[in-house]
User: Fold this.
Amino acid sequence: MKQNTTFHTADGRPLPTSLKLVFTNAARIPAVNDMFNPANKLKIDPQDYVVKRETSLFNKQMSNGHGTLLVDNKGSAFALTMAWHTTANDNKNKPYHRYTEMGTTLTSMAGFHSAQAVVAALALHQWWNHNPKNKIVAEILEENIASQKLFSDTLQWSIVKRKATTKDISDRCNTNVVEDNNGGKPHHWFECKKESIAAMARAILNIADRGTLNRKDGHSIAIDLSALDDVGLTRPRLEAMASGITAKRALRGIAP
Ligand SMILES: CC(C)(COP(=O)(O)OP(=O)(O)OC[C@H]1O[C@@H](n2cnc3c(N)ncnc32)[C@H](O)[C@@H]1OP(=O)(O)O)[C@@H](O)C(=O)NCCC(=O)NCCS
Assistant:
């Protein structure tokens, strides 16, 4: 029987009354695997936009805190995004962190704009604590309007235009993809720029000020973003980022 989406998530769970943003660790893997259970994943992502990654790498990134989740008080996951690190060798043949791909973005709560909380939190954390040498990027299909709105309109990411750059990003970011049903469809690579840092900080502050995720019908869910403090993204720093400051030295000098 079809569930009533007014009170249920896309995968048929009752909507939570409160959520907490968490950075991932090994203990969170089962909750994320539940979202990827094929029956649930089909309901959350019917177009199969989220591509599957190698399990060992998936578990490694989860364990090392390179994912964010929205979880309820029992630890069930309702929204997810992950950061994928790619390496290249320098001219002395030493590997370095070249790009970070933000991907695996999924939310089971349509209409709450919940993805901006997980994406902004993780992209800011990556930029602040694990910045790659080149770019933080995301691959988005032209037909995926919800994702375009999120990255382009809300979070102010920009399309990478240079062909040689998009080829390099594609080659490196697709090495750990094991199942890509979207291959060949028109897409863009988006990159996180200075204005994106400001927009993402503003998005986080707006959610923190409201204290809730809201849907147009008036339904709201309390949200706790305190995990951001633990990775150094304190309110005074976020306020500075939101005002356009991206110099890390200046930001580090701001008392937490
Ligand atoms: C993409 C995704 C993460 C966005 O999450 P979100 O921003 O929290 O989604 P919401 O449901 O709150 O919708 C946000 C906006 O997109 C719009 N939208 C959602 N689905 C849409 C669709 N299929 N077509 C057009 N617009 C859509 C909503 O109307 C809303 O618009 P508004 O800002 O004008 O109110 C989520 O839709 C999702 O999990 N999709 C399946 C997996 C996926 O595509 N992942 C991204 C891969 S790059």
